[in-house]
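Exercise 7. Given the encoded structure of a 57-residue chain, write a plausible sequence.
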């Protein structure tokens, strides 16, 4: 149970970092601007938080 919760949080943090990198790329006009990175990051955040919440029960 504790391992699933930790892996869910790690997955959510990785997804958040992916979204953050893409946002910084848009703000600073870098070449890191890929919509697929944003979508994948959001999916990681949602699935990671779902795993962490499910392991709480």
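Solution.
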């Amino acid at each position: 149970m504790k391992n699933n919760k930790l892996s869910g949080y790690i997955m959510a943090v990785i997804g958040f970092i992916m979204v953050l990198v893409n946002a910084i790329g848009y703000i600073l006009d870098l070449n890191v601007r890929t919509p697929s990175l944003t979508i994948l990051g959001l999916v990681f955040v949602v699935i990671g938080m779902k795993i962490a919440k499910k392991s709480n029960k």
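Remark. Residues 2-27 form the longest helix (26 residues). Students should compare their own answers with the one above.
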